[in-house]
Amino acid sequence: MSSRVLEIEAKQWQFESKADYVNALESGKVLSFSGLPFELSPDEKRLLSPRVLNEKSRNVSLNEKGELKGANVDPVVQAQLTELIGRFKGQALDLLNSIAPGYTPNLRVAPTSFRPLKVEDRKQSIRADDRRIHVDAFPSRPNYGERILRVFININPEGTPRVWRVGERFETVAERFLPRAKPYSAWQAKLLAQLRITKSVRSEYDHLMLQLHDLMKHDEAYQAKANDDLVEFAPGAVWVCYSDLVPHGVLSGQYMMEQTCHLQVKHQNNPEKSPLAILGRMRGEEHLEVVGGLTV
Ligand SMILES: [Fe+2]
């Protein structure tokens, strides 16, 4: 497998970590676990179908209040989906606690999603096409540098792997694309918020991350030759990464669950390894505070 992926054997979601997995994670590695138990009951196997989705949704998600969104199913199936996604949520949080116990009190837990669609069949705009290699950035939800930490599990019942492209270091990507980034405009950011296009005022950090995301996806030559590794996550595999730091694209696969957590940069073991700090350094020291409106 790729040198960008750290393969770990684990029999339980809760364990005492001897290795410095946090350093690997913060340095941009994908941690890939094999051997973690996650059994689907016969009833749950029947949930593996795109038919559980309502017309407008690509994912079923379970929010912080335990409410299920995106499904069009009867109450019995709704309860089964809630149980399945909720069980993964609990185990994903256990795993994060095993990898990085120091993060636990400061993690902000976002919704958990179940993605039943075949990646190859998705038709969407270049900007929304996650098959193209990119770093995660949200157009409508500025995060001011807060990290995006994600846990994934492939629950495909037919032996189909989930295939990712994993790209080069964030610094290398930023060196390539940052010179092409449009300058930040504070008045435009305010206008976007007034028009409710963004949920709050987009910071310079958010602007730059979105520029990287968009410039990467729209650069055909880069997409064709992004110095990336092809990585297959077999059914049962669980993988964890900072998706705002690790360039990635999802080439193929079907039936995956994903837990997103957020962490403020100051709660990292090494805040200097965050995109906020890296972009700040690249833009010059005095720029750091402006980038994201936060110091690290
Ligand atoms: Fe992504």
Automatic annotation (TrEMBL):
Pfam families documented for this protein: Kdo_hydroxy
> Which top-rank group of organisms is this from?
Bacteria
Question: What InterPro entries does UniProt report for this protein, alphabetically?
Answer: Kdo_hydroxlase
Q: What is this protein called?
A: 3-deoxy-D-manno-oct-2-ulosonic acid (Kdo) hydroxylase
